[in-house]
Write a structure and sequence with these properties.
Layout lengths: L2 H17 L9 H7 L6 E5 L5 H8 L3 E6 L2 H14 L5 E5 L11 E7 L10 H11 L1 E14 L23 H8 L6 E14 L5 E13 L4
Parallel strand pairs: 1-2, 1-4, 2-3, 4-5
Antiparallel strand pairs: 5-7, 6-7
């Protein structure tokens, strides 16, 4: 294990440990909206955290490979999958995606909010490029990122980092460039920015912008 991977694991283990125990949260709204009408197949969930998306997919018949760099997150995800009765549908595995990407091809590759204050130059581009490569012909690629956050967006828990999460927001153009999708090989299903009204813990209103990129790889003829 590289020093960089060790630092990354420690950071995310401490972050997930700060969240405490509990059942899995709701799945990401964008995954639900884009995947609810897709025919189940094989899915790759990048950065699965406590398993909410993987569990949602498994309950709909998908065979899911769910990966995260944090053992704390993966332990929680396995417990949540067991509570949901979908353990047989999900394979959980630890990967530092910048250096150790899962093998194989998938009918759906989902990258929901892959934000990290630890990203080094070029790392995110490598991860998204590998994500696109992992999509099987006829399969779907779903990438969702924060595009902007309110000024009061919460900082990481004390002791983890002094930088706010919004240092790693991306524009659609940045993510599209990182994916390196070859002309003629991909169909755009949806590419849009969504504005969501949010409220701070102290009641201050604000707007968060997310952007959604959904592509389908053209089947081979």
């Amino acid at each position: 294990m590289s020093d960089r991977t060790g630092i990354t694991r420690e950071f995310w283990d401490r972050l997930h440990d700060s969240f405490g125990d509990g059942v899995w949260p709701d799945p990401n709204r964008y995954l639900v909206g884009e995947a609810e009408n897709l025919a189940p197949g094989s899915a790759l969930d990048l950065g699965c955290a406590r398993g909410a998306d993987a569990i949602w997919l498994a309950r709909r018949g998908w065979r899911v490979t769910a990966v995260d760099v944090s053992d704390v997150a993966l332990d929680g995800a396995r417990e949540n999958a067991a509570r949901a009765g979908v353990t047989d549908q999900i394979t959980f595995a630890r990967h530092d995606l910048a250096v150790d990407f899962p093998e194989g091809s998938f009918d759906l590759v989902s990258a929901q909010f892959l934000h990290s204050p630890l990203v080094v130059p070029g790392e995110r581009e490598r991860i998204l490029g590998r994500a696109a490569e992992a999509v099987a012909p006829g399969g779907h690629l779903l990438v969702v990122s924060h595009q902007s956050v309110p000024p009061w967006h919460p900082r990481m828990p004390e002791g983890l980092t002094e930088h706010p999460l919004n240092l790693t927001v991306q524009t659609p153009e940045e993510n599209i460039a990182a994916l390196c999708l070859a002309d003629g090989e991909w169909q755009t299903i949806r590419a849009e920015t969504v504005a969501i009204e949010v409220t701070s813990p102290t009641g201050e209103p604000g707007v968060r912008e997310d952007h959604l990129l959904h592509y389908r790889r053209v089947p081979r003829t």
